[in-house]
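FORM 7B - TANDEM STRUCTURE REPORT

SECTION 1: FIRST PROTEIN
SEQUENCE AND TOKENS:
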Amino acid sequence: MKEVGNKIEISCQQVLTDDGSVFSIQWTVMPERHTTTLTPQFLLERYQAYLRHVTLTLVRPLRTGEGLAFRLLTTNVALLTFAPPAFSTESGIHTVTLRICEGHFVQAACCNRGKFSFMAESVDGGVKISVQLSEYYPRLLGSRSPSLSRKWLYRLTQAWIHKIVTVRFLKNLYRELEGEGACFRVVKVCVRKGEEI
């Protein structure tokens, strides 16, 4: 587990890629003793509960006949809809992926492309837990070649909210397993090339 000055690192990157899609990843390393607990199914369930809690039930993750939907309050307005969770294990990385189908937060011409994933991987000293968003085309960007004003609008709203919620989810998960005494430090990393958002 990597600690810096008694602070646990949460690594983060959010970029707009060359094809106009968003790539976002946040991760931290949990103590090795939680390996059996930190399954993709556990992470997905905890994230859904946390999202509901942190948004004061404004966003409600609900299972549907088609998969999963993030709905607004008790309405049928779907901010995002997902295909059923797909579980996989490759090179020691256990993953659950939600393919983004559609919703008010997705460009209509780019549905069924984005992926929202939770990953657990054994590393030296612990279990690396990652939350990754890839190939996502936000409606706020307007197109694959967004204007500067659109980029800033997305950066200051949806991108900022996603980062804050995800980082806090990782902090909350760590404290749930290890107790309230942990302190954290968010660090920027470079996993994929692109324009920082």
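SECTION 2: SECOND PROTEIN
SEQUENCE AND TOKENS:
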Amino acid sequence: MYLNSFFDYVLPLLTVAGLLLINASRISSDKGVKLSLPPAALLAIIFMQQSTDHQIPNLSYLTFLDLLYLCAYALVFVCFFEAAICK
């Protein structure tokens, strides 16, 4: 049960976050390559969160999964600004 939930909800989110971190750590002279992943990751995270909201009952407090999504959104924006500002 717990392992299945990990593979359904947490692992895809960690995969997207890992791809963002790998993209941010690369030194690239082409800004277009670094700027293309954060918007795509943002869309993926939004659709993953909508999917989990339909499958898991709503609670009146933040769960661990909600905190992971908040961290993932923050990582997307940090990576986007890093790619836009840095050379």
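SECTION 3: OBSERVATIONS ON SECOND PROTEIN
Helices lie at 2-25, 31-55, 64-85.
The longest helix spans residues 31-55.

SECTION 4: SIGNATURE
Preparer initials: ____
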